[in-house]
Amino acid sequence: MPQLSQFMAALIASGTILTIVLATDLGRRRITTMRMARSIIAVAVVIAIFVHSFPTTGDNDLSLQLVGIGIGVICGLIAGALLPAYRDAASGALYTIGGIGYAVVWIILSSGRIIFVYGAEHWFPMGLIKFSIEYGITGQDTYSNAFIFMALAMVLTRTAVLLAKMRKLRAQEAGSGQLPQQAPDSQQAPVGQQTADSRQTADGQQAADKASAEA
Predict the structure, then answer these.
(1) Which of 121, 160, 186, 210 lies 20 to 30 Å from 193, alpha-carbon distance?
(2) Residues 6+ apart with CB under 8 A from 39
(3) Please, which pLDDT band fits residue 101 given cuts at 50, 70 and 90?
(4) Is 97 helix (H, G, I), strand (E, B) or coil?
């Protein structure tokens, strides 16, 4: 197996996730459970295919993989912020609009992985090996996992942001659909009291009319 071929595996995995996410989110898209699950399923399949181990023996194996997750969370928050959601006035369905900014975040992250893969194979292979030895990184699987976990964290974070936006829009809809509140009981006379007051008013008016007629 060629040296650093695991990097190419990470590249393929990242490209697959990028394609699915952009195909799902770019433009005006309705928010559905299947839409959000599609990206998560894609990442799960990628992990099952390309993640063969979880290195922890090196001094910084775990740290590097956690850094990948942290970068993915940050990028997922940025991507989610660039994916505005709204409710369609006619149908009441929830939609998002994925524009250029949203696509750029995903493309930059994927391009960075491509550049790293190419550099690891052509520009600085010995330098990367030396770096790994000095900092206690055991090998290719650690870097590959860091890339894949980064993509997973980004997809999950973006999905969490979408769920939060859905709940907010539904809460706003529920709030706007509430019936107006009635006046406090202290400001409203009981029905029986209102009827008695009306009768007293009518009797008083009849007595006044009778007195005027006799005069």
Answers:
(1) 210
(2) 17, 20, 21, 24, 155, 158, 159
(3) very high
(4) strand
Residue 197: count other Cβ atoms within 10 Å of its Cβ.
11
The answer to whether 106 and 21 have CB atoms below 8 angstroms apart is yes
Q: Given this model, what pLDDT does residue 193 score?
A: 52
Asked whether the beta carbons of 173 and 87 are under 8 A apart, the reply is yes
Three-class DSSP category at 59? coil
Spatial separation of the C-alpha atoms in residues 181 and 93, rounded to whole Å: 28
Provide CB contacts within 8 A for 106, sequence distance 6+.
Answer: 18, 21, 22, 79, 154
Question: How many residues can be counted in the chain?
Answer: 215
Q: Is 15 left (phi over 0), alpha (psi -120 to 50) or beta?
A: alpha
Q: Measured between alpha carbons, how far is 214 from 207 in angstroms, rounded to an integer?
A: 11
Residue 54 in 3-state DSSP?
coil
CB within 8 A of 62, min separation 6: which ones?
Answer: 56
The phi, psi pair for 96, rounded to 5°, reads -125, 160
